[in-house]
């Protein structure tokens, strides 16, 4: 029940300062709670991004947006990513992320309220895992992720497909498609996953399975560099 309340608090209709306070208070027990929910997004996203990389990623610069406690960084590290930077709107979450020792730089930033604190075309890859949802990062913020990605770089995003997130997901996918039609990026992957995490209520459960579903998207920013011969 405690986990359900904490999840509801950050996905609900509360004002942004209140949601960030919830995250601050949740930071110490966050990983324990999402483990109980069998939350798979960090693992799935890191694997999808790693599979898109044409060469070993150890030299790649990566920005982990809404990095939370560093769950995604742990998975990325396991796939060979070593130059990780992160941003998050919650000081409590950033403190936990700093304690992992996996990030070279960490900055406070509430994406959607303010720009990312980095220059354009700085990163070979950008991740935004778990925070694209109702009451969190608005879909209108996606172009800001593109701004800081190098041409030919990759972006890995996730969202949930549960009933209360359907309206947001439709808005997000419309925004992603518009950017593709404009030639800003090209889709590499859209992976629908059934058992994304345990549902926190019967109403959110997919066909009575006890789980909600989700999706991983990987895009490559244009212009895409030509393939090397040989």
Automatic annotation (TrEMBL):
Matches recorded under InterPro entries: Methyltransf_11, SAM-dependent_MTases_sf
Signal peptide: none
Protein name: MET27 protein
SUPFAM superfamilies on file: S-adenosyl-L-methionine-dependent methyltransferases
Example of a GO MF term: S-adenosylmethionine-dependent methyltransferase activity
Domain Methyltransferase type: 63-156
């Amino acid at each position: 029940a405690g986990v359900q309340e904490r999840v509801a608090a950050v996905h609900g209709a509360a004002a942004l300062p209140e949601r960030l306070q919830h995250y601050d208070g949740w930071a110490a027990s966050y990983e324990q709670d999402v483990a109980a929910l069998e939350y798979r997004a960090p693992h799935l996203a890191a694997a999808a991004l790693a599979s898109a990389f044409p060469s070993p990623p150890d030299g790649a610069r990566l920005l982990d947006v809404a990095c939370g406690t560093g769950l995604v960084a742990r998975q990325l590290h396991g796939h060979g990513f070593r130059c990780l930077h992160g941003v998050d709107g919650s000081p409590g979450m950033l403190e936990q992320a700093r304690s992992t020792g996996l990030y070279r730089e960490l900055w406070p930033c509430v994406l959607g309220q303010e720009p990312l604190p980095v220059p354009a075309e700085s990163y070979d890859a950008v991740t935004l895992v778990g925070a694209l949802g109702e009451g969190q990062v608005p879909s209108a913020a996606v172009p800001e992720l593109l701004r800081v990605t190098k041409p030919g770089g990759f972006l890995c995003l996730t969202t949930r497909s549960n009933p209360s997130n359907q309206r947001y997901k439709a808005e997000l996918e419309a925004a992603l498609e518009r950017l593709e039609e404009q030639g800003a990026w090209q889709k590499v992957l859209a992976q629908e996953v059934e058992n994304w995490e345990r549902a926190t209520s019967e109403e959110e459960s997919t066909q009575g399975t006890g789980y909600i579903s989700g999706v991983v998207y990987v895009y490559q920013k244009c212009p895409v560099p030509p393939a090397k011969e040989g």
